[in-house]
Amino acid sequence: MSYNQSALARPSSGKRRLKDLLVQRDNRVCADCNAPDPKWASANIGVFICLKCCGVHRSLGTHISKVLSVTLDEWSDDEIESMIEVGGNASANSIYEAYIPEGISKPRPDASHEQRSKFIRSKYELQEFLKPSLRIASTSKKSSLQVSLSRKIMDSFRSSTSTQKSDGMVEFIGMLKVKVLKGTKLAIRDMLSSDPYVVLTLGQQKAQTTVVKSNLNPVWNEELMLSVPQNCGPIKLQVFDYDTFSADDIMGEAEIDIQPIITSAMAFGDAGMFGNMQIGKWLKSHDNALIEDSTVNIVDGKVKQELSLKLQNVESGELELELEWMPLEQ
Q1: By C-alpha distance, which of 138, 116, 133 is closest to 60?
Q2: Are 172 and 205 in contact (CB under 8 A)?
Q3: What residue stretches are annotated with the Arf-GAP domain (predicted)?
């Protein structure tokens, strides 16, 4: 192939990769309003958007959102790589829409320009829905704030990609669905209350719930998924108070020993072959956070375990969770 032929092949190859990304399920609707078949993208944010939302993105300025047509505009290699690194709408929204407050909802495809504009500015310009770990102290220059945010988010995606690559060397034995049910008598970290959320850590993986505003007895009923490698340790659980202008305060922690549910599930194999029964137990002791013994049971063909935990290193607070073991073939 000649030099000219090679030069022509590269952009078409890049464009093809971009279109391959566009046809993924989560990218078939607009990241901001769920309108079908988006044909525009914000290259620096990493989302696919519809024509109506595209107009709002353009009004934000290119220092916040650089809008390009997927089919009509020329894309640089760096712009395409950035989109692919982010992975599309679901990955980006897991950060930019991590904490949408109660009472605020995404605009619908038929939303007015005012509704659309208010949500998009809150999401990207004001950064009101970001994960607490990605909040950045404000600066006098919005452009430098957005640059810092973009770098931090891209570092987050790169770290995630790197972890996934290294996890390719790890043999996973199953998945664990952790349903965070509710908290009781949690500690006060603001004037009169707290804005709690829960973070679970297993090895290099982290998963976290949404924030419940001003509530010491929050109800989440939220399911979090963790891949379980061989020879894994306990799940580290932490509860934090979300703060807008300062670092989040710790509201207690606990460790969850997942070996009882793993060994019980492995011993019985296909749980669907058995009726409802107890198959294991994690015993309360002075060196764990259990309020009472926690049994492992087969319930309707699934291996489950209910936990009541007293949070450690804090003045008060309890948490209720439910674990469900999911074999890889499931």
Answers
A1: 116
A2: no
A3: 15-143
- 158: tokens are 């790169």
Among 95, 323, 319, CA closest to 226: 323
Q: How many CB atoms lie within 10 A of CB 281?
A: 14
pLDDT of residue 5: 39
CA distance 310 to 17: 49
Rounded to the nearest 10 degrees, how much is the dihedral formed by the CA atoms of 15, 17, 23, 25?
Answer: -140
| Those residues with Cβ within 8 angstroms of residue 248's Cβ, 6 or more apart along the chain or in another chain | 132, 240, 241, 242
pTM of the model: 0.52
Structure tokens at 286: 């002075």
Whole-number pLDDT of residue 278: 92
> CB of 221 within 8 A of CB of 181?
yes
Beta strand extents in the chain (DSSP E only): 40-42, 47-49, 67-69, 172-184, 196-202, 205-208, 219-229, 235-241, 249-256, 277-282, 294-299, 302-310, 318-327
As a whole number of angstroms, the distance between CA 96 and CA 139 comes to 19
d(CA 117, CA 301): 47
CA neighbor of 48 nearest in space, from 110, 93, 11, 16: 93
**pLDDT tens by residue, 105-159:** 899 999 999 999 999 999 988 888 876 555 544 333 344 444 445 555 555 555 5
Note the pLDDT of residue 327. Answer: 83
| Alpha-carbon gap, residue 88 to 123, rounded angstroms | 16
- The whole-number pLDDT of residue 193 equals 95
65: tokens are: 């959102």
Stretches where the chain sits below pLDDT 50 are 1-11, 136-148, 160-169
